[in-house]
Amino acid sequence: MFKYIVKRLLISILILVGVSLIIYTMVRLMPSDYVDRKFATQIQTGAVDEAELQHFKELYGIGDSSFKGIVGGYLKWMGNLVRGDLGTSFKYEKPVAQVIGENMWISFAIAVVATILQFLIAIPLGISSATHQYSVRDYTVTVFTMIGLSLPTYFFAAIVIKLFAVDLGWLPANGLIYATKDYAETFLGGLEKFGDIIQHLILPISVSVILSIGGLMRYTRTNTLEVLGADYIRTARAKGLSENKVIYKHAFRNTLIPLATLLAGILPSLFGGMMITEQVFGIDGIGRLAYQALREGDVPFVMGYNMFLAILTVIGTLLSDLMYSIVDPRVKLGK
Length: 335
Hints:
The structure is a single chain. Helix 6 packs across helix 12. It contains 15 helices and no strands. It folds into 2 domains: 2-82, no CATH class; 106-327, MetI-like (MetI-like fold, Orthogonal Bundle). By secondary structure, the chain is mainly alpha-helical. 28% of the residues are buried. The radius of gyration is 25 Å and the shape is globular. Helix content is 76%, strand content 0%.
């Protein structure tokens, strides 16, 4: 297994290089760059001429948009990356690694809670739907699945905000704490602030869970139906085992085998999947910062953020392969 892991990691390095080249090229080929957006007003009024604009672009390292300039810029960025330097964000004027490190934890916390709830809800519902095929329960789960798969995040989040925050006034809809409150640096003040954070996170977590469980429920239902039709399940039932033992002891473990592939996408989704949700709910997590940086053409931050997600994807894929061998002992990892 050690040789397999080393081999996969070496291949992953080549993949990451290819991914970084594609991302860098796409960012540099955007119709407008950071300097164009920053000085948009001055350009329209004529306060900044073309020579000054080009000078600013040279200072930011994005002056030459030709093929040669893009390749040169990429090689410079890659050289800094090898030395452990992700560069300095144009927009946030801080080292990219510092911005990611300071703002990733709230996104991570939201996504971890949402992912745990997603699995705790979707897998039992998927199994229940499969064991009651074509029943009212099955059709209800199917309809719920289609709703989760069909509704865009920004649309569903707007409905939730309108209903629970605006009309009913039950929960806050923006930020992490109430801006009007002054929290004293005491134990009780800390608890009150923590309670406010929990209140602010209920809606974004709920939106994330509802919109993400549909695919997992459908996946679990399909896998369970396939397993329940296997010969060993019919044999277990013929031996007189109870239905619960047949489903949760024999069928459930084999249902988990295909679900292990989902690990490949869980790690990057913990950070990347919150981008739209954080934007709608005004949460200053890493997803919202990345969205704003992408809109303004902040090359260093976009590169650092996407490489961060790419590395998490590689790690998730490797963990998925390892989980396969744990869940199903018949799977042998190649050398």
